Amino acid sequence: GENVEQHPSTLSVQEGDSAVIKCTYSDSASNYFPWYKQELGKGPQLIIDIRSNVGEKKDQRIAVTLNKTAKHFSLHITETQPEDSAVYFCAASAGGTSYGKLTFGQGTILTVHP
Amino acid sequence: SAVISQKPSRDICQRGTSLTIQCQVDSQVTMMFWYRQQPGQSLTLIATANQGSEATYESGFVIDKFPISRPNLTFSTLTVSNMSPEDSSIYLCSVEGDLNEKLFFGSGTQLSVL
Fold this sequence. Notes:
The complex is a heterodimer.
Chain A: E1 4-7, E2 10-14, E3 19-25, E4 32-38, E5 45-51, E6 56-59, E7 62-67, E8 72-77, E9 86-92, E10 103-104, E11 108-113
Parallel strand pairs in A: 2-11
Antiparallel strand pairs in A: 1-3, 3-8, 4-5, 4-9, 6-7, 7-8, 9-10, 9-11
Chain B: E1 4-7, E2 10-13, E3 19-25, E4 32-37, E5 43-49, E6 56-57, E7 68-72, E8 75-80, E9 89-96, E10 103-105, E11 109-113
Parallel strand pairs in B: 2-11
Antiparallel strand pairs in B: 1-3, 3-8, 4-5, 4-9, 5-6, 7-8, 9-10, 9-11
């Protein structure tokens, strides 16, 4: 089955800096890669996703890049703000009838210092 | 995105007892999923809740331990049976948006077993 590795496990940045979180996956059949943000006491919130026919996607301060050949994808957050502090999870699925069957990475605790 | 309500939001239970978690969605959805998030860990898919048929369980999860009901397209329940302290986790209901093939999560049920 699919295996998703996520790095780093913790990331500390100053407000205004950029943050990058990287994930690798093992199953070449995976074609859907969402990123979730989870704040304390809440469920994961979908913040951005990318499908395998696209190399990069951007939404305001957040961007995701995908390298299918190397089987890795990354989350980029620019101009970080204290409210970006949370746990971020990457995930992968084979899509089709299985968009909901996600394999998650281990999570990254992002702390943005004012 | 769908609005997903889970009840209870948290509970403390005695070992050997069972707890039923309810998930209500504000619109009809075809696919509903139940995930588990153990303390400080990532999310793991328990099962897919199929409307009108038995749930489909992932490796390591069995119906006797986690019976699931899906009586209609807006509601599902997950029961954690014969609980032990190892069952202490956050249990999350999630639904796949029929139009945009994205997965959305409820706020979760934090379960502590003593």
